[in-house]
Amino acid sequence: MVGFDRAGYGESDPNPGRSVETAAQDMEDLADALGLGNKFHVVGFSLGCHAVWGALRYIPERIAGAAMLAPVVNYWWPGFPAELAAREYGRQERGDQWALRVAHHAPGIIHWWMEQSWLPLPTSTVVVNTTYLPNKRDAEIRRTFTADGTLRKKREMATQQGIQESYYRDMAVMFGKWEFDPMALPEPPCPVHLWQGDEDGLVPVALQRHIAGRLGWVNYHELPGTGHFLSAVPGLGDTVLRTLFG
Question: Is residue 2 over pLDDT 90?
Answer without folding.
Answer: yes
